Amino acid sequence: MSKGRFIALEGGEGAGKSTQARLLADALEQRGIAVVRTREPGGTIGAEAIRQLLLHPPNEGWNPRAEALLFAAARADHVEKLIRPALDEGRWVICDRFIDSTRAYQGGGGGLSDEDIRALHRLGSEDLYPDLTLLIELRPEAAQKRLAARDPDGSDAIGGRSAAYHARVAAAFAAFAEAEPARFVRIDGEGEPDEIHARVLAALTPLLETAQ
Predict the structure, then answer these.
(1) Residue 1 is assigned to a structural domain of this protein
(2) For 129-138, what is the mean pLDDT?
(3) Residue 95: which domain range?
(4) What is the distance between the alpha carbons of residues 192 and 41, in angstroms, rounded to a whole number?
(5) Is omega for the bond preceding 85 within 30 degrees of 0, making it cis?
(6) I need a labelling partner for 168 at 20 to 30 A (CA). Which of 15, 42, 88, 89 fits?
(7) Is 111 domain-assigned?
(8) Residues 35 and 94: beta-carbon distance below 8 Å
(9) Which of these, 177, 79, 74, 162, lies nearest to 126 by C-alpha position?
(10) pLDDT of amino acid 155
(11) What string of DSSP letters covers 67-135?
(12) Which 8-state DSSP code applies to residue 204?
């Protein structure tokens, strides 16, 4: 039995990652590929509990260091209990966000060093990285329209941060993609979900060919 593949979808708020993760999982299952669709923070009971602490924090919230530690703890549980077992069983894991979100949000947005975040990842998740990371990119004004329709009552503690913060996040994601072209594929997030899905499938063609 061959080892499964690990695909992460990344991007800023309102980029459409969750929709594309669902469409991708459905398309892979139609090809006869066993799929696990999950998200971060979350995916396991422990990680989902930490998700609530991160997105709906008590009192004044967390500083970037505390956030990074909480994300690393949630990811460690997620990797050990869900992601690695699924990959070892030959299933493909489709994950809505992974380590690069922490690098972009708590690093690029929050000012933590990339090396510190990667060190936490080495400790907590044994340096597991996706086989392919799909970075869905969207203009800020288009993202705001989607967020207004999706979250009419307002965003969570992280999504609701300033435009300047999210601009730093977007710049960090772009820098990662430029630095690691073998792992990242940049996807144009403009257009209807089916159009973006077609771009996602095109990006996965090399991996799909090896799975035949």
Answers:
(1) no
(2) 97
(3) 6-211
(4) 26
(5) no
(6) 42
(7) yes
(8) yes
(9) 79
(10) 76
(11) HHHHHHHHHHHHIIIIIHHHHHTT-EEEEES-HHHHIIIIIIIT---HHHHHHHHHHHHTT---SEEEE
(12) T
Q: What are 19-45's pLDDT values in tens digits?
A: 999 999 999 999 999 999 999 999 999
Q: How far apart are CA 37 and CA 18, in angstroms?
A: 10
Residue 120 belongs to some domain of the structure: yes
Edge to edge, the sheet with strand 35-39 lists 35-39, 92-96, 6-10, 132-137, 184-188
Query: What six digits make up the tokens of 125?
Result: 């998740």
Q: Which residues contact 33 (CB under 8 A, 6 or more apart)?
A: 91, 92, 211
Contacts of 104 (CB under 8 A, 6+ apart): 10, 169, 170, 172, 173, 176
Distance CA 48, CA 50 (A): 5
Question: What is the residue whose two structure tokens read 């009971």?
Answer: 45
pTM for this prediction: 0.93
Cα radius of gyration rounded to whole Å, the chain: 16
Structure confidence at residue 118 (pLDDT): 98
Which residue type is seen at 172? A
Q: 183 near 134, Cβ under 8 Å?
A: no
User: Nearest-CA neighbor of 34 among 43, 22, 25?
Assistant: 25
Indicate which CATH number applies to the domain containing 173: 3.40.50.300
Decide if 167 is inside a domain.
yes
Please state the domain count of the chain.
1
pLDDT digits (tens, 9 = 90+) for 68-89: 999 999 999 999 999 999 999 9
